[in-house]
Amino acid sequence: MKIGIKRNTGAVGGVAKISVKMDREKVASLKNNEEREFEVSGPTQISVNQWYMGSKAVEAKPGDKLEIKINPLMIPCLILFVLFLISFSLRIGIVTVIAFLGILAIFVFCIKNYLIVKNISTKE
Fold this sequence. Notes:
Layout: E1 2-7, E2 18-22, E3 25-30, E4 35-39, E5 44-50, E6 53-54, E7 58-60, E8 65-70, H1 74-89, H2 93-113, E9 115-119
Parallel strand pairs: 1-8
Antiparallel strand pairs: 1-4, 2-3, 2-5, 5-6, 5-7, 8-9
Transmembrane segments: 70-88, 94-115
Keywords: Membrane, Transmembrane, Transmembrane helix
């Protein structure tokens, strides 16, 4: 049986391809709005990444349809990132330290939370 995966990241994540991993092994790259099907024999761990940013792994069973989206928290994170970057450039002691820690926290958060893989199969 197959698992269907559709990328629906919109303009924010649409610049670069997303790597699809099944059981930690890269099997494909998807462009925005691209949909693919993959042959599987049983439950499989699916994760995706774009550059260093990615998603948490989800378990998918044969027949499932998955959708890849940008995490809605990324817009506030992007705004905070810009504010931290401006604060960092001011070079004012503790403000610079706090800004650096904020930038670091956003990078760490994005490693597994930038993208969301959601099961959109209708279970009846």
